[in-house]
Batch of 4 targets.
Target 1
Amino acid sequence: MTTPKNFILLAFLFLPFTFSFAQKWATPEVEKRVNELISQMDLETEKLPLTGGAAWMNTFGIERLHIPQLNTADGPQGIGANGNAPAYPAGILLAATWNREIAYKYGHSLANDAKARGIHILLGPGVNIYRAPMCGRNFEYFGEDPLLAAQTTVNYIKGVQENGVMATVKHFVANNQEYARNKVSSDVDERTLNEIYFPAFKAAVQEAEVGAVMSSYNPLNGEYTVTDKWLLIDVLRKQWGFKGVHMSDWRSAEFSACEDLAKNGLDLDMPGREFMTVDCLKRMLAENKISEETINEKVRNFLRPMIGMGFYDKGKNGQLDKSIPSDNPQSNQTALEVAREGIVLLKNTDNILPVNTKKVRTIAVVGQNATRFLCGGGSGKTSPFHTISMLGGIRSIATQYNINVKFVEEYSHMHNELFIEKGSKTAGLKGEYFDNPDLKGKPAATQIDPYIDYDWKAVPNVPTSRRENFSVRWTGVFRTPNAGIYEFTIGGDDGYRLYIDDELICDEWKEGGFRTRSRKKTIKANTDYKIQIDYLQKGGEAYIEFTNKKTDANYFVDQLNASDLVIACFGYNSKNEGEGADRPFELPETEQKLINEVCKTKTPVVGIVTVGGNVEMQSWEPKLKGLLWAWYPGQEGGTAIAEILFGKINPSGKLPVTFEKRWADNPVYNSYYDSDGDKHVKYTEGIFVGYRGYDKLKREVQYPFGFGLSYSTFELNDLKISGKNTDITISCTLKNTSKKAGAQVVQLYAGKRGGSTIERPLQELKGFEKVYLKPGESKVVTIKLNKDAFSYYNINKKDFEVDPGEYEIVLGFSSRDKKLSENILITR
């Protein structure tokens, strides 16, 4: 067995796997205990129920045999669905740290949060490769490169499991888009799977010894992954040696036959044995379609990590650690440290940053994102106990320098312009809340809402008995002393209607993800305009907001012109980027309008973008002096961003993805959407995803993979290569040539230079080290390579093999920043 082609040895951290692999927790002693338990079990009442969940987030327990019910929790970036919990930066920000140690700390802290809540199994990390920027779950994943993703994955999982919680690597495999994820097959050739999409999963099994693997929702090459025998038995079990539990994603087995689920490798049907049912398994046993040993093997796979990780011996309530606070200061500190290292400085024209605290006296902060907790939506969403907004963080530090920070709103939530009825001085709208989605019957509750801006999944304060399938009607009037043309904007998930003076202005009365609609209306001063807003919520997210702006006034830009610096906070959030749907490549309409209006100012503008990947920026990026890519920075993100803006933290994040100039430039442009409606998308780019594809196509990019600026400057010198054939040590000297301490990521790329019998990328990331240096300090950086650096997957041999010939070894600070290089000759 060889390691994945792109999972390279770095320093002393990773050893080659050229032998039959078994997880440390799958010992002979554990196996003996597992078999003893199985021998005591009743087939119908105990073994069969263990093949599925007992409730939404729990497995089946057997009190007679002291087998505990295991508690699971969503949690790629925080413990979800268990009340409030520390909210960490998104997975893609973690990858942007390029820091193995902090990935381990991230996982370790998550495990503490899990134990504080009695959670045995963390449903994370998500490690699917970033193909295109629109995928709704990119924010959960670790970028476009299999080596970076694999090493982030390994250290995350080790941090979780070495702290007493089982991790679940997901979504196996090729869940690279969220649109129609249950229907569209990802058609990927075998070489591409092994070189690009498998490495993070294989490393999770063989390096990190993960206890659980979760299937994806999508089919792979026409077969749903949850029933793909080749994937689950031939690859996962036989080739990789996985001994843990394979579970379905929640209801991902919906489109598969029970017989296929039972025969082809599913151990645990989550959440509640809906599709691989006890009755179906009993029938199959009676008809000799499966044997009892098939059931025993599923139970073994479930019990091995349970016993090997200590859950069985801890007993029923042993996972709960009351000594760990639910709002853990250590977790909060980890969230802050990760954010500090993963935020990427992309642009810094004329050294606009850090803020010149001697010259800047007034800062204008704009954008609703400045005041909000921002995260991706869906199962990766976490509700924190407390957050630091960008506005709060900026004000906190600016105060230290007597800098005035003013929040300038382009859109208003009409705090002082909504009243409950004509002529009334009582502010707000009358809200009638119904326990049904149809506004029928008597309201379950009635209250005055001062303005309309709700995220009921984050703050579950709906005054009804339901959290889903409810509706609301707000009524009142709009009144302002300022006449003019106003633009009214309403947005929601699911449906909404807006009436002004009984005229239906916006009609989106249907289920669907968050979207916005706007209408302009001429408004007279001190005149009551009747307002009615209807809202329905069917399931999933629950958002509604209602804003306006006066379009014929220069107040907004005038406020910016009167400032010394503008900080514009814009992008996406959990309303419009998350699980279950893709987002557009462009910014949301309201955010496009905001940044285009901001760019009319004469004052220098620094942009802070929150999003899970790239967005179209040609219309506004050239007008910015500075640009920070904040991803989703977690509950402490406002502090980290402010620290970077004012130079208290030197930015060191590097892009884990390539930022294209146009969506059409992306190598997967013609192979992402199911354009012909046949429910299949062929990955025609093959291994040439991300920077590999841009290099092949010789296309310019907005910002290359691995790119990120610092307030320090660095030099690379003294490239040395030693060793024999494929066992090579590369060293160089990194020097901080500035007067400011900082960190730089030395990136090593290798590429075949002619003579190959198979097409190879121009270059591939084969190693990296993040190095911290004081002003003027130098360090020797050493990276070790083995044969995996020079191998490709041979589909005829079903294995990786060395591709002999001349290779260029390149050291630099991004995929397009060559500092040092040397050619070497590799033989078999």
Target 2
Amino acid sequence: MESLTSPQRVNTGAGSGATPHPTLALGFGLSFENLYDGNGLRRLDASFLEYLAEGEPQLVARLMASRTAPETVPLLQESQLIIDLAPHLEEFIGQLFGIQAELRALAEQHYELAPLFSCKRGFVQRKALQKYKAVDAVTFDGDALAAAFLAHCGDSSAELSELLFARHVNAWLDAEEENAAKLDTAMRYAAWAALTPAGKKCHGQGVLFKTPAKLDFQRLVPIIPVENIPYTAHRLADSHLRLREGFALTDKGTDLAGALGEANYCIWCHEQGKDSCSHGLREKKEGDVAALPPFKKSSFGVALAGCPLEEKISEFHKVKAAGLSLGALAIIVVDNPMVAATGHRICNDCMKSCIYQKQEPVNIPQAETRTLKDVLELPWGFEIYSLLTRWNPLNIRRPYPHAPSGKRVLVVGMGPAGYTLAHHLMNDGHIVAAIDGLKIEPLPGELSGVGRGGERVPFAPVHDASALSEPLNDRVMAGFGGVAEYGITVLWDKNFLKIIRLLLQRRMQFALFGGVRFGGTVTAESAFGMGFDHIALAAGAGRPTLLDIPNGMACGVRTASDFLMALQLTGAAKPDSIANMQVRLPVVVIGGGLTAVDTATESLAYYPVQVDKFLNRYETLSAEKGEAALRQMWSGTETVIADEFLSHARAIRAERVAAASAGRQPNILKLIQSWGGVTLAYRKRLVDSPSYTLTHEEVEKALEEGIHFAEGLTPLRVEVDANGDASAMVLMNQVLDADGKWQETGEVRLPAHTILVAAGTQPNTVLAREFPDEFKLDGRYFQACDEQGEPAKPERAAAKPDKVRVLLAKHDDGRFISFFGDLHPSYFGNVVKAMGSAKQGYPVVSNMLAQVAAAAKVDDATFIARMNEDWRATVHKVVRLTPNIIEVIVKAPA
């Protein structure tokens, strides 16, 4: 494979007065091309070992011994090895990329914040909060104490920041007796800041006075009842609401201090073998049984299996707290190379299994994502992260990619399972061709290394990773990423998807094709006929569940997944989009999962954007054609809806003008709620809903945007108006009696012009209906098989099954089809479980590939060229037939 075109340094910014990109001059006699070449990566590894041997010969010996027999290395010994290696790897990469000064500056930022955490542990928690309780703190005058503290510091004009507080307190603690009065003032202030509502509001964004709350699992979200309604519904108090406008990123995540706060809150329990965040919390072992005991379950019955990727969380926290961001990222990447696709607002399996089970857990996803961002913000940060996914000496099992195997794999679906699997298979030495049913927008060749026809072209190193980002409200959906692209909302920065894509697409062993449907454009038979040695299905979930109720398909009723896909893939929320997606208020969302929660928030955010667009276009067309001529084209129903939109849009415009003149943020939410707002209706209690039991933080974030959560409501029918459009949702109201049984209390009617149904999805098993001889079913899922092709039973919803069974079918000549992610009964449910299926399952695929001879007799370049010819649709010719008719001739051989 190394015979294909290699990357080259190309200048994409020079010319026409543009500032040239800085030139990447690597150390140790290496070139940029070496970083994407198997032999080059082996040279790089040898250089690191030589570098390490100069000062740490014993460490090199430990590393090489571990690489020789990694399966014999105890977990604690491996953890200590990678922690010991981390600072040396950081220094080596600093020299490799010539960023030693920037790494020192980043480390200094960590060291400058260190007083916060020593003060928090040694003074705030162990002294101040032991001496003064909440009943004392509420009597304190925070402003007066702050002034007294600054007077003790000798500078009454200074601002009392948390860092200033910590530095002075730490200094005073060196001589406690002579500083007793100063320390008592500090203790009183700390108690006020940590324990009173006013203090928490003052320091709510800080870390010094933040104390972990005790967990009340029935009250994880601070809800209050919605009043004057005949059913039970919840909301947040007005003081908790967060006014949102549009579709910019809604959560930028924590800063460095916040991440270090989490890393220092972690007790680094890998040292005692108690890192349940990674390996899960298990029941006590009984007797001398060899098998591991089952995982404990949360109070909601959710198995506490820990991170599906078994990321080395405790280890990376310890290294991050020591100021080594690059070393911490390298530890993360050992088990989670696609870390850009996990972290904050994506996963929380690790948090649920944290050793802290009675108080707030460590917010591991926040620390993880901040660690990645810290590295990406360095010069050449993207190239460093990218390199660590191909060469990572902390990975004792596979420090660099295996030699080419000569085998080719077709990966179907480029969602979390698909792109993670593609990475691991390439690092195992295989060629990967990836297809996705969605159209995937091309990236510039100088960035991706792929030309318009799929040919390899030179690409440039990325100096500043921010060049890969764009505002989410302007970003064009690129199609890559599956559910991470069309299902996850702007609570997560989708610019990470471009990073993930580049990690794969720049590699010569990878070819990506959009708009190719497996089962249509290409089938299992045709793929094997082309010379693929394995087919891996990672096509995600299937069709959504519909409500079998009267008028369940009336105009105004649609599935939540359809709404989210239409909103995001069509760009309906963009001012210049002509996508026709209509939402009318009030909105009722049916369901209690995360899809329902996301649908509620996005419909709430979309409505003002929609009516703004309508008013602007109405005014433009009225000026051009005249208002009467415009209205003449509308039916009676269209006139009613148009006037509704115009009235609401003008009210929103007036609110913005009033807010601007008053110097405040416009409260559009209040207007929307007055027009009916958005209500999420669930058949059980809020605390029973999947969104609450799995990720209650997402429920709270959604309620902050102003939705209402109604509980105990089961859909009965949709009421329609004279035109057949939805006008209300009728539901059966239920309450729990003293015995914990649901009792019906009568029907309730929720006015609703838009009803969005989020009642779950079915596994995507359409292939079993289209090709029943090749794809068998086992209930709702595909029938798995073992290595001999015989039917097998995977563990259901296991995330970490004792036996990994990802094989689906065996071809006559010994080649296999496998399945992953939401297609699989062990791994369905969320992004990180899908990625876990790829990490756990790729060794099975490689093992099967080792047992068959390569099917294709052509070289890799010829093999990929054939797919480029067959699977890339291109515009062949454009012909204007009449003034109003244009003929477009498309070449698409497959």
Target 3
Amino acid sequence: MKRVLRWGGAVVGLLVVLAVLAYGFLRGGAPRLDGEVALKGLSAPVQVTRDALGVPSISAANRLDAMRALGYLHAQDRFFQMDLARRVAAGELSDLVGSAALDYDKRQRLFRLREVAKLVLAHATPVQRAAMQAYTDGVNAGLKAIATWPFEYGLLARRPQPWQPEDSVLVVHTMYFELQSPDDRHESQLALMRDVLPPPLFHFLAAAGTQWDAPVVGKPLEMPPMPGAEVIDLRKDPPPKLAFDTEDEPADIGSNNWAVSGAHGAGGHAMVANDMHLGIRVPNTWYRAQWTYPDPAMPDGRVTLTGVTLPGVPALVVGSNGHVAWGFTNSYGDWSDLVLLHIDPKDPDQYQTAEGWKHFEHHKEVIRVKHGSDSTLDVRDTIWGPVLGQDHNGNWRAIHWMAADPDATNMQLADLEQASNVQGAMAVANRAGMPEQNFMTADADGHIAWTIAGRIPLREGYDPLVPSYWDKPGVGWMGWLDPAKYPRVVDPADGRLWTANARVVDGAMLAQIGDGGYDLGARAGQIRDDLHAKDSFAAPDLLAIQLDDQAKFLARWRSLLLHLLNPQRVFSHPERTAFRQAVSDWDGRASVDSVGYRLVREFRTQVEDLAMAPLFASCKQADPKFDYHALAQLEGPLWVLVSQQPKNLLDPAYKDWDALMLDAVSKVSDSVAATKLPLSAYTWGARNEVHLRHPLSGAVPFLSRFLDMAPVQLPGDGNMPRVQGRDFGASERMVVAPGHEAEGIFEMPTGQSGWPLSPFYRNSEPAWEKGEATPFLPGKTEHTLEFKPRD
């Protein structure tokens, strides 16, 4: 026992020593908030103040000095986040975390984006390269100034590597991965459906729009006709029973933005509201900042920018410069294409082009693996892009994707700093190289506008909705659309604009943008209706729209469910009494205490799975990875089925559609019973509990309480303005009138700092959770840091 106690004491003593060392290492990662710092490369002193939330305000003599200081701040507060971003894009995670990331790196490395980033940098103007270099020097100075490394490197036992200018381009590439599909899943699935399903069934299930459409320009699209028994009859030809995964979260990441003109903004001011919905994590995607410097070209002689930056990138992403304000949502246009390849039967290393047979280019990509051997990947490249693999018919395919084209990315978004009206802001957005976004802007004169930010390809000779051969002359991407010809909507008659990842326009403008899998228009329609419910809006009114959790999308499903559970069906199944009562009592919102919302939502999901699985069984047979949940417009054909109840499209396992829907009720009831809790505990909040986690807390679970935000139940869901899931939602909420920023509103999850001991690590979280308005502009100065030039 004495020996055990001695050993136990030694272990405890060792743990105490390790804990002290770890705490000392962690303390050494503190960002500098006050005092003076000598910073090489500055042309003049720079002052940085911070408010109570840790938001920095940079006052500099010129833009290069401002970017040098911003790089320093980003490195001190967010370097590990920046490092992960560049590694994600370049396929270099294995070198940091080991073999667990190897398969992921192989998928990313297919696009060889580090080489692309170098080409983007080489194509940049001298002014842009100077800004990138100043920012890079600031990052490396900020990293070097940390007494120890950021704590994550201590956990991983790796040394942080210096920043390089091309790394900032890679961070932009990371957003391509977040916002677009590098394998064009939408196009691939449509092609499979077209090949496998009878044409009338394909057109019905692949509807491009529904009655929920709410474009700014145009009308809802008509649903294709439902196929009759002469096309398909499941009663006579039963489909195989195949299991599809149940989709528990919305499939697509999306955002909201809108603008009201000066005729409808309080005080006669135009306003922009923006809430970008992304995967939310610790720290947050965005980093708030303000910077100012003299510029005689501006009306007031200065540039003053306020909003959010993306750590790793020397530019303001969303915000206001006092003359124009702007925001983004993902456009879901068509920004990639699958190219079918004819392979030479005599030489499998050759493929057909318009100029004849061509050998694949082979790139040997070496992936370094921490504590393991290097892995070599053979990337086969074509003139259109890398080879992805074979489709369901055995055809080889390459992918032509924006992110892998050096001409598609540039640093021109930073020119928004000097924009003075919506026309100038749109001109910058149209020539900017970035993931293609809906660009919403307003100016201080009361004007509002929408356009597309990012490059738009010119396509010829093929159907962009499905994979095609590009080996004939005049087929493929034929350059870029002239920015002067971009789709634009300026100052609409009703003084309102809105986007929510759904189709925004029709006709020639839609043809330019294409269809990359638009979201259902329910969210956009609800925003449109909210904007037309009043004639004048102040900033809190627009925040209220961002927080709108009314479940209008599910109202008709609630009515259907109540009609289904008529007195006879409830009487014969007493367990349905409480179920029906909860649905009947529901107030129509996705609130945390709502049992009715959760029941209606899960009823609809079960009906979808029971109704659609038989219709897509042949697709699943052709490709086990096929997933109909990725079809965002599926609500259209689903509602036709449950409304018209065609026998020929009903799973033969059921005698009628009511039987199918009653089975859906039973499955939801089984889910309730599985919790072993009363129905009253089956709330939406219990299901929609939000967990914001640090990337390393999953690997080191005992650190979760220290690194992660406390779990919280939140209202909202997918098909309503307040988009909220367990690990995705509003990465920021902004409402601002350019020229009147003091009246603006801003919220974001977590906090400014990535250092867990910082008071700014989690102090932005409470207001974001509650939807409480906090100021758009930085507040009272709490800390002051002076940067002095150093030779």
Target 4
Amino acid sequence: MRKLTRSLPPPAIPAALAPALAVAGGLLLLCGAALSQVSGGTDRNVSKMANYQNECAIAKNPTNKLQLFASCNNSTGGLFAARSTDGGATWTYPDADKTIADGDAGQGPAACCDPALAWDTFGNLFITYLTNANTVETLLSTDAGLTFSNLVSLGSGNVDQPSVAAAAGAVWVVWNQSNQMRASGAAVTGLGVVGAFGAMQTIPGTTGCSFGDLAVSPGGAVVQACETPTGGQGPASILINIDADGLGAGNFGAASTATSTNVGGFDFIPAQNVRSIDAEAGLAFDADAGSPRFGRLYLVYTEEPVNENNDTDIMVRFSDNNGSTWSNPPIRVNDDATARSQFLPRIATNLLSGNIGVCWHDARNSAGNTAMQEFCTVSTPTPASPAFFANAQISDGSSTGSGSNPPAAGQLDIQFGDYSGLAYFQGLEHPIWADVSNSTGDNPDGTTRWDAYTDSVTGGAAANEGDPHITTVDNINYDFQSAGEFGALRDGEGLLVQTRQTPVATAAAIFNDYTGLTSCVSLNTAVAARVGTHRVTLQPNASGVPDPTGLQLRVDGALTTLSATGVSLGAGGRIIPAGSGGIEIDFPDGTVLLVTPNWWSTESKWFLNVDAFHTPALEGIMGARARGSWLPGLPDGTSLGPQPASLHQRYIDLNQKFADAWRVTDKTSLFDYAPGTSTATFTQASWPPENPPCVLPESHPAKPLSELVAQKLCRPIVGKNRHSNCVFDVMVTGNPGFAKAYLISQRLQAGSTTTTASADRGPGKPGASATLTAIVAPNARQGRVSPSGLVEFLIDGEKAGEPAKLDARGRATLQTGRIKPGRHQLVARYLPGKESRFLSSTSLETPVVVGGGTY
């Protein structure tokens, strides 16, 4: 928090803020909760079946970020399979029985188990699995998992745990056969255009090696990893084999050891005491051509620093030569300080940004080390070693390794299984895992059963408030008082938010604990965003001259009046009203941006608070700070390193190197400008001066207020950083309006919600009824409190029935009457209860097709 000269007793609430405080109600206690560097959404139970599923895989379509496909072992035959076309919010099934490869015509031989998935940049979806006839089968789908055809049958006899990878115009399959690793690959030149698979290779030096993974480099090299021995409690070795030319004339080379580990092939831990765990080696290449580590290969695995103490950890090593040599020492991914187990890791890289995602099962919160929760983290690519952000619990529930349902006849109870799944693309991690938590409440009778769960993982809440105080997506709080236009948030897939900062003359400077600097101040006075294919700006006017009657909203340069229902930007993007004259911008990737404006009458200036929620963006002045770096990364992925000891060097780093790196240029600017103006019009490179006074030409310094008055005005503001920010802003500027602005932002940040709507699969005949479902989730996940109240469903603007009550998990359902055939639009509107701390929200329109199709 900021340094204050003295402590004060709690003052009375000033009358000027009483109405705003009454609006805030009982919400204030939420705002002091800690925020994670990465954040999950609401768990989705993908399977919802009476039998059980585990050993799941998940893939995301690189040609359509809304399409996902998942598959798991299924205890009653075939493979469980589900597909999503809305980014994982809802799931449907290729077949009514939710399975594929179960003997139905056209779906390949009946499956036993061990599904693996890969989706290439042509749109080809590959699924590889083991059959009941002891073969390795690969199926192909060219319609996002709606239908499959049998592509190739590989291997026979004693086969186990296949892997599939598709990249660089090839698809490869690796598996264990007769206690040795085998491989085969084929060229891929287009959607559905897959060549013949080559002759099976026996990979040298892999006798007694399994439980591994496969990856294809951007240049076409193929790398496989496996663990040996495949039994025992450890120690063991993780071997690497490389086929340097992929589909060329060469074959896999000799095995080399990437690392040793004390986790054996059958290592028993309390949370997995029947099936056991292995090191579960996983591979992923950085395939982003713009990444500073393009072509780097990452290896994740499980380690047990002291053999048989059950304190297992998730480790990562990397290689810049396709696996010939590996970094040392390994990087510990899990950040807990316990002696409990982490296991079953998965690693994936974001194709378009080079970010690294890792998820795993974690027992850190289980006193007996017997129950797991799913945890995840990310790392942005840097020229040096990757540094992972603070870990976050993603799963809503906690699960032990055994359920009340007995295993199916003749099938081993494998608990969480040998592996889980992870897809990472378009800024979102999508883990999938099996547990018995019933965290989504889909088992109303309370029966505990194994289900497949998934979630969407993004960055944490971020803020750019006051004059301006930055809270990054990884919850670092620092002041950034430069003047000009800057990149506030950015990712590798098109999301971009920019803010304009305007200097203010004050009689005093402001001190920041994090930077250790005393600085003059500036204000956010305009914001711009790229939302899908559209450009949105909120600014005083094109010339930048403030107008007390209000800010101007423009979409693609055209002045836009915002109605109560908002403005649709297509593909999941929209602008809707929020708070007192503010706006909410919803991005196609799920990012929610809240902009709260306030008028400073004595200075004739608008100032804006900008808050972002569950965003995959990790770059910009609100972006993530890697471990070992004192500020967010620079646009090229490099870091400014540790905080300098010298205050002068800190000033240079922050206000020159960092500020200049993130300054908007005429080429990159999203703002609207009057003729004769540009981004240079609003740039003042010398601000803030290294040492006060804080003076500006033709401007009188704002008259400050006393600390006592500021404390009274800011008393309703909770959270040590936000409260002290408020106090100093009011003191330095002399403007009580800052306290009101903080209170409004606090209310919006802690109480805003997102509502999603869906309809179940229709029965295939006209005029059928449907089950409508809405999920209401807080934008800021502070604790695990769910909204309460009602949801009103509307079809084509008309009420579909009486409002439905939200359950304890924030979900409401409604069984409709019969619906006329044709295309309809479904909307769900959240209606908070009178005592609810949460704010209303309305879902995007969801298409509903009735008449021989699906909802």
